[in-house]
Structure prediction request, 152 residues.
Amino acid sequence: MNCFEIQERIVDLIIGDIDPVEKELMIAHINECPLCAEEFQFINECIDVCCSCPDFEEDEVYWEEFLFSVHEKIALTKPKSPFPFHIVLPVAAGALGAFGIFYFLFLKPAPKEIALPKPNGVDNEPVYEVYDLTPEEQQEFIKMINQKYFGE
Prediction:
């Protein structure tokens, strides 16, 4: 039996309106579970206080109403389920992964579209590759570089 079932039947256990087999199961659970033991002790004390009143008249309707009110209070104080992280986290991870794939397939700019900053002092003159020059132009270019940077 679980705690919810035990707490619903505690009043029946105290009153004695329960099967012997079920009584043994409930007592074993109450001895093991501190929450149910506390609930059992509280309801038992409440019933003792109610029965010890001199003007208390016990009838069947009273216990039915009392039992109904106890069941109602237990249902209202039922613990709320925690936030369902086991559902939300995989969904969020899947959505993030789908967005990443969508970005890399459809939104990522091609290398040609990326704007590179222009270095300072460089005009918009075309730049020629050294390998596009003829062998005589390459020799002349190498001489110019050597003169400018190495003083030759």
